[in-house]
Design goal:
single chain, about 290 residues, nine-stranded antiparallel sheet, about 5% helix, globular
């Protein structure tokens, strides 16, 4: 994305403007503590850069800004299911239009809140009433939370993920800890596997870790930083890197883009979350840099 091509629609405050890029509305944050962008298409954080830091979030240079498709990179919202549990893959939230409901700022940072409610299109896919609220708290750290409320008269169950793509210097020099040892290997049809307590990468990796610690550490050696990923409301952590062959096959990724990204996702996998009418659940991820 070329930020010079963003056209401003409306200035909401000194730090927050509503912009447009290829027909997609984007909330742009330029604040002394942080720069960030949030697409209303998908309720999708696109970039996040604390002052004095390199970008923490990876966005594909080949990402397609098309309201019928999910955006490659950033933090897609997988909801009300993860993966191919139903159609469309990863649910409909990441391709739905969210509404900006609130924005606040002070000297320390910015908070932006988006909402998504059931409508004719969502009920045709998933026949339940709901209210979703995405809250982005942005300063030297990033805190993203998805709060789901059952506004129906019947109980329903859901899964999903905050599908965070991290910007790294070189996947060959990255190590991850805190994800636990047991995982379901999606490259082996979900086979249950046991791994070590340190994860490195040399091939396609697509794993659902079933007993992660609350905080997972991504040691981005060549950027001389460790990214701390603290998840709440989850029951699994997904770690993904497509490696070269899969990257080449994906039209919205450059052939070598796997080298500079890795996904660590706060995930509701199996079992899913059951909500009675009026009940609420929050899935969150907090991202910070340690040096």
């Amino acid at each position: 994305m070329d930020l010079r091509q963003l056209s401003t629609i409306n200035a909401l405050s000194d730090a927050i403007t509503v912009c447009e890029y290829q027909g997609v509305k984007i909330i742009r944050i330029i604040h002394p503590m942080v720069e960030a962008g949030i697409s209303l298409h998908g309720g999708h954080l696109l970039w996040f850069k604390p002052a004095g830091e390199k970008d923490l979030i990876w966005l594909s240079k080949e990402a397609e800004f098309d309201v019928t498709k999910a955006i490659r990179g950033g933090i897609p919202v997988c909801w009300p299911w993860f993966g191919k549990a139903a159609a469309p893959s990863h649910g409909f939230a990441r391709t739905s239009e969210w509404t900006l409901s609130q924005h606040r700022e002070n000297d320390n940072g910015v908070i932006v809140t988006l909402t998504l409610e059931d409508n004719q299109n969502t009920r045709a896919i998933w026949p339940h009433k709901f209210h979703n609220q995405m809250t982005f708290e942005m300063s030297t750290e990033l805190n993203v939370s998805l709060t789901s409320t059952n506004t129906d008269t019947q109980p329903w169950s859901y899964g999903g993920a905050l599908h965070t793509y991290f910007n790294i210097a070189d996947i060959n020099a990255v190590t991850i800890t805190g994800m636990g040892e047991e995982y379901l290997d999606s490259t082996q049809a979900g086979k249950i596997c046991q791994g070590g307590d340190v994860l490195t990468f040399n091939t396609e990796t697509d794993r659902v870790y079933t007993h992660p610690q609350t905080t997972i550490e991504v040691n981005d050696k060549n950027n001389q930083r460790t990214i701390l990923v603290t998840n709440q409301g989850h029951n699994a952590a997904v770690i993904w890197n497509p490696w070269q062959e899969l990257s080449i096959s994906m039209g919205d990724m450059a052939n070598n883009s796997f080298e500079t990204m890795v996904c660590v996702e706060s995930t509701i996998h199996t079992p899913t979350i059951d909500l009675q009418p009026g009940q609420t659940h929050t899935l969150s991820t907090r991202i910070a840099v340690q040096r």
